[in-house]
Amino acid sequence: MAYSLYLMKPDQVVSQTLEWMTFMFFPFIFAMFGIYLATYERKFRTIKIRAVQTGWKTNLLSKQLSMYISSTLIVSISLLTSYIIGMVLYQFVVQDIPASEFKLEAIPESHNIFLQYFLSLFICFIFSTLGFYLGTILKGYMAPTLIFVVYNFIIPILGKFDIRNMLALLGHKVFDFKGRVQLFIPTEMSLSLVFISLFLLVVLSTVITYYVSEKQTKYVI
Q1: Which of 40, 51, 126, 168 has its CA 20 to 30 A from that of 25?
Q2: What's the Cα-to-Cα distance from 173 to each of 39, 128, 183, 187, 190, rounded to whole Å?
Q3: pLDDT digits (tens, 9 = 90+) for 194-215
Q4: What is the pTM assigned to this prediction?
């Protein structure tokens, strides 16, 4: 009971919200968001107008910038909402339960909530970027969505350089996983190698995407 009451405190609710949103829902949500931003102009046949008005490079950069700003706002609003709800629910619970009689002998050590927030943003940026690049290269919504679903939900972890393994490794360094969410144990590797690998992945994906986009026609759809 003491541990349950501890996990229901507003600050712990925020941390747990970040855990299950970041590792269960945000990758799928933001990958789909990135794919949508990359493909909606082709769907509504407005890409020719945008290409003439702003140029294709400016168009891509503006989409990416709006994607990152939107991701930051969505994550921030989600956390603020979870804190407010957690505060209200905790006050409601302690009205009927004598919380002062249920105290932990030792408070579990918690990681920095700001590091958790920035890691969540980082993961959202990674998946939204990859979704955006897949949508741009494949020029459609269905194929990138199918690729992501198969990779994320069907294919097992492919080794230590798998994106899921590297992000899980970062997750265990920053999050506590003291609640219901239990993330799989990743294959160990150095953190410097993780950041270098993810950086090279983003850079390589960016170069390939902009090269392919330059070769794609913007005027015949």
Answers
A1: 40
A2: 35, 22, 12, 13, 12
A3: 999 988 988 888 888 888 877 7
A4: 0.78
